[in-house]
Design a protein that fits this description.
With 493 residues, the chain is of the alpha/beta class. The protein is built from 15 helices and 14 strands. The protein is 35% helix and 13% strand. Helix 6 (81-99) crosses helix 7 (106-120). Residues 74-146 form the HTH CENPB-type domain.
Length: 493
Amino acid sequence: MPQITTKRFRPTNEQLLKLYKKRDDHQSMTQKDLGIWFANECKLSSPLTQSSIGTMLKRRQEVEQRPAIQRHSKRPHTVDAPTSEVEELLYARVMACQKDNIAINHQFLVDQAKDLCKKKNITPAHNFSHGWIYGFMGRYGLKVSHAHGESGSAPRLEDESMQEKVKEIQDQLSEYPIERVYNFDETALFYSAAPRTTIVQVGTKAEGEKLDKSRITVGVVANGDGSHRIDPIFIGKHKSPRCFAGKASGFRYFSNTKGWMTSEIFNQVVKIIDRAAGAKHQGKKCVLLLDNASSHNRLPNLENLVIIKLPPNTTSKLQPLDAGIIAAYKKRYRSRQYKDAAKKFQQHKRNNVFKVDILTAMKWTNAILKFEITNKTIANCFKHTTLFHHHFQEPTAITAEHNLEEESDDEEEVVETIDGSLETIYGPDFIRSQDIEYCFDNVIEEEAEIENEKDDEEEVEFVDNTMPLAECNSFTASITVIAVPIVGRSQFD
């Protein structure tokens, strides 16, 4: 005998309100007749039983006492009573942020909800998971409002001449173990730019503000299995920014009038990499992969490095740092900026909450690149470029030029920062550039790349948090996220 299955029906708040209105308008209708009418109204295959209608009518007071935004929601209401109070207060905070045009993200909702539970001495019935985030946004009519930026077009590697060049590089790299292959690349960080993604009320638009174009060039270097990370390089426009207070920054900081990489600076940088690689591998020859930027053309005599340059316009496909490592770094940087802005918001600061000085940006960058980007992420990005035929084993323990804390293998949202405190990362890890589009932290973590196609002079990436998903494929199937651009903000030119 075949098993009979039934589909459970859960009326939405909006449907229940229609039922109550029908009851008021036609008080002579029996509950059985109401069940037939309600089934037709909700397009059900069979009428509801009298007991089901009776249960819904008993809930009338509860439903009508809900906030207006929930009463007219098309989603079932399933929140426990104590947490409902927290959600109402959290909704008020979201609206306050929208009023003051302060961008927020999913982690802001979690942090604020936990803070409210603590202040109200309420023990929540759930862990404020991803499901709760989307449920809360649905119940209160919230959505992700996102401004899409530009993205570089993918280079073509199908040409026979290009395949020959790639094969030549593969043959050269095959002579070196993966831990002795390094990659260096520069990227521009707009360290004070406010994110272009926030959470707003459905039916409204996020208002854009003037873009802060304060920029610093960051030079990133790592070897193929992530076991050796050399301190990042920073290039600014000013020799001694005010935030340095006349003292040394403690980082490798260079300056010129434009804040870009120059041949003179790169000569110093490549010597630093040469000495560090030689010390790490006891004088054995190592490879340094570079793009074909003009600042990389004039090289000094190197003792430990063999330079291999990538073909023009192939860096987004063949350069490991462009395959996801820099994107992962910028994802985490923007996450820190969100959290810093949330602290300022709680301190009743409303102006320029995303503003960051250059020294703070350097500290965050150093911590992220040395402690938060995992060895596995780096190894996967090297492997993804298809330049390496080596067998990728488990990455070895991380080392660096300063004393490093033990890196956590946990790729969840909580990591340990330099000062030993627990900081929340607002998004999952990036493994490959294809994984940049994801759904945990809004929609897309937009990393707009503006490159000189002729000689790759400089890679400029605009960072914002949206959203950064490599691990949400199964989850996104059940989620619908609406993304609209923030109005009033010009693109970077």
